[in-house]
Amino acid sequence: MATLLEKVSTLISANLHALVDQALKSNSMAVIDQYIRQVEDNLEDLEDAAATVGGEAKSIKRKLADYEHKEAELDRAIDAFLLEGNEATATATQSKLNSTQRLVETYKEQLTRLEAEYQKLLEAKVKLEARLATMKQQREELQALLELAKSKEVAVKAMRGLDDLVGSGDSDISRLAQGIYARLDKATTATEMQAASLDEQIDQVLDRSVIDSQLAERKKRLGLSG
Which of 66, 72, 154, 173 is the most buried (most CB within 10 A)? Predict the structure, then answer.
């Protein structure tokens, strides 16, 4: 049981931010899925252990009640034998009472230990369930963000290719920063930069066309046209 609680304690104390960082660095949800599987497996073990310990506690409680009832009966019997002057039987009954009392104390100790252990298992189960709910929610959010980041990156690459076709190749995208929000911000910023660069070049091309047309008119008027 101690080993199970140690495993659960390790899962509860796991650094969720570190798990998320690992998932982002590897661009994969595998590390988070593995953590979720471990939590789910240990939750099943916790439920089974809690049921076992709780059942044992109830069994001990019933036995304790029976022996406490027997203890009271033996105590009354001793008094009755002494009143009858039957000391030999009273002595034997006293010996049996002493044995019964020791057994009652043993059962009380066992019951206290089992109830404490049962409570620890229930508390661990509640904490682990909360952890599982949190990680499942974060997994959904991260999956959506990773997919969005990938689509942003595809858009950036497409804009870079278009920029190359226009003739400019001096703009480059810095490597994506660690962390999904940084990746999204950088991808969005890169897209805006590429779009601005392309628009600027188109404007320059259009302005150059107008200027060339104006110069051609001047050459014709001056008799310089070939």
Answer: 173
What φ, ψ does residue 192 adopt, rounded to 5°? -65, -40
Q: How many domains does the chain divide into? A: 1
Mean pLDDT over each residue of the chain, to the nearest integer: 78
Could you give the CA distance from residue 139 to residue 131 in angstroms, rounded to a whole number?
12
**Residue 225 above 80 pLDDT?**
no
pLDDT of residue 101 exceeding 70, the answer is yes
Q: For 22-53, how does the pLDDT look when each residue is reduced to its tens digit (9 = 90+)?
A: 877 777 788 888 889 999 999 999 999 999 99
Q: Is the torsion defined by CA of 137, 132, 183, 162 positive or negative? A: negative
Task: Confirm whether 195 is domain-assigned.
Answer: yes
Report the amino acid identity of residue 182: A
Cβ-Cβ contacts under 8 Å for 20 (sequence gap 6 or more): 32, 138, 142
Q: What is the distance between the alpha carbons of residues 114 and 60, in angstroms, rounded to a whole number?
A: 9
Query: What domain range is 190 assigned to?
Result: 2-221
Evaluate whether residue 226 is within a structural domain.
no
pTM: 0.59
